[in-house]
Design goal:
single chain; 506 residues; 6-stranded antiparallel β-sheet; alpha+beta; 3 domains; elongated; Alpha-Beta Plaits; Beta-Lactamase
Length: 506
């Protein structure tokens, strides 16, 4: 393998050599089998007086030997069809035929150089060099063995050695010429063959890429509800969901949306139509997809729920501007439901089913950004006597107390706002009301009515801070004011009960 060849190219050419050897070996086996007819052909020549010094037994020997060699070669093809050894055997068999024919005075000089020519078909330098070398050796052996006969037949040769030297010199020159011309021809053939294989491999890879893309498109057509191929080079769109793929022209001078978009628009939630049309605007898609593989947006179908519209870049310019784009839509209503469920779980306290601290922080962040409404009220709530309930009646009673407090708080806040469990027995509530006192009365009323399995009563300390009462106050200021109000209420509760908070650990 040359230094400039890649492993894949070498592998492809090596595979070609193997497959080519199988084919040429097959043809050579046919040649060997056909040469068994040389015996009868020579016999006819003997009968016609062409070969006066050849006996009929020679014809029999030639046919039987070639039949045996062709059978052996056929067996080799069955077990090692692509082996170099199988190829070499066929070439040697042909050389043996020529040696026997020459020694039997059947001289066809051109046939000697047929074997190296045949070896060129293997496109293998080693096989060609072997064919030239072995052919030359067999030629010399045959010439030496037949020298006494041919020297005696021609008066210009005083001795067999003189005949051998004369013929050997001629054969040597002819072999050198054959070797050089054949080697040059072989190199040119191999170079063109490598180029053909490389081009073929590139064509196959391109076909595989196209096939892969088509498979992807077919798969996409199955996965998505709608699949459109938009070609910005020839300004066409084509639905891949239709049985017959027919490109439709897009007039970019007057048209801003595809036929698929215009069809979908009628099913989009009215308050999302404007956003949907902006997202699907043909004149801005290429800029928005520049140097990207995909963009997507979610919208609501008034019948089927949430769907996702995506633009996928298939082919782009050197500058990253998409030329061909796949436009798809897929129903994601079930996915959205699962997403909302997970979000709800992540924002909900497991024990009480109230919103948790994470939800509270996210909601507060919105108020920090947008500001507070005049009717904004923040409640701070703490359960009284939780530690005592845990110590005297167990944690089941403590959990019952926390859940009872959450139920009373949620029922009291109702549609006015949201209640949060932010700690063990700590709660916060955001409500919008002009009468926070009514909310507090509701909480006291609910707690007085409450009865549990382990405990008969529940008590909560509730403090609040209203935006109206603290003009210009921030969220943090209202939190501190609500906490201060709640702790004052808690102190009053323990005083009235005659309990020491420090000793009871409340």
């Amino acid at each position: 393998m040359n230094k400039t060849e890649t492993p894949s190219e070498y592998s492809s050419y090596d595979r070609f050599l193997h497959e080519n050897r199988i084919k040429i070996n097959h043809y050579l086996n046919i040649v060997l089998l056909c040469f068994t007819a040389a015996g009868p052909a020579i016999a006819f020549g003997i009968y016609a007086g062409v070969f006066p010094d050849v006996g009929y037994m020679t014809c029999v020997n030639i046919s039987m030997t070639l039949l045996l060699l062709s059978v052996v070669h056929f067996i080799l093809m069955k077990f090692i069809p692509g082996s170099v050894a199988t190829s070499v055997f066929a070439l040697v068999a042909l050389n043996l035929l020529l040696v026997y024919m020459f020694c039997s005075h059947v001289s066809i000089y051109l046939t000697w150089f047929l074997i190296p020519l045949l070896s060129l078909m293997f496109c293998d330098k080693k096989i060609y060099i072997f064919a030239i070398a072995s052919n030359y050796i067999f030629m010399m052996i045959a010439t030496w063995l037949a020298a006494p006969y041919y020297a005696a037949m021609q008066s210009r040769y005083a001795t067999p050695l003189a005949f051998f030297v004369d013929r050997a010199g001629g054969f040597t020159i002819e072999t050198l010429v054959m070797f050089v011309s054949g080697y040059a021809l072989g190199r040119v053939s191999v170079r063109y063959m490598r180029e053909l294989i490389s081009n073929y491999r590139q064509i196959r890879q391109h076909e595989e890429q196209i096939q892969e893309r088509m498979s992807i498109l077919d798969s996409m057509a199955e996965i998505y509800d709608n699949v459109n191929l938009i070609n910005f080079v020839d300004n066409t769109e084509m639905s891949l969901r239709e049985d017959k793929l027919v490109p439709k022209q897009i007039n970019m001078s007057v048209q801003t949306h595809t036929a698929m978009t215009r069809k979908l628009k009628d099913h989009v939630m009215p308050d999302q139509v404007e956003d949907f049309l902006n997202y699907t605007n043909l004149r801005t898609i290429r800029a928005r997809l520049s140097h990207k593989k995909i963009i997507s947006a979610d919208f609501i179908d008034i019948v089927n729920g949430w769907f996702r519209a995506q633009y996928i870049s298939v082919d782009s310019t050197i500058d990253g501007i998409p030329n061909v784009v796949i436009y798809t839509t897929r129903n994601i209503d079930e996915e959205k439901r699962r997403e909302e469920h997970l979000i709800r779980i992540s924002l909900t306290d497991e024990l009480t089913r109230l919103f948790n601290r994470r939800c509270y922080e996210e909601d507060i962040a919105i108020y920090r950004e947008k500001g507070l409404d005049p009717d904004f009220v923040l409640l701070s709530i703490d359960v009284n006597g939780l530690k005592t309930a845990n110590d005297t009646k167990g944690h089941a009673a403590g959990d019952e107390l926390i859940k009872g407090a959450a139920d009373c708080l949620a029922a009291s806040v109702g549609s006015h706002g949201k209640a949060y469990r932010t700690g063990g027995d700590e709660f916060l509530a955001i409500v919008h009301t002009d009468d926070p006192g009514a909310i507090l009365d509701n909480i006291r009323e609910k707690t007085e009515q409450w009865h549990g399995m382990y405990l008969d009563e529940i008590s909560m300390s509730v403090g609040y801070a209203a935006c109206r009462d603290h003009p210009g106050a921030s969220i943090d200021d209202l939190e501190k004011a609500a906490d201060a109000s709640m702790y004052a209420e808690k102190e009053r509760y323990y005083r009235e009960k005659g309990l020491d908070r420090r000793k009871s650990g409340q």
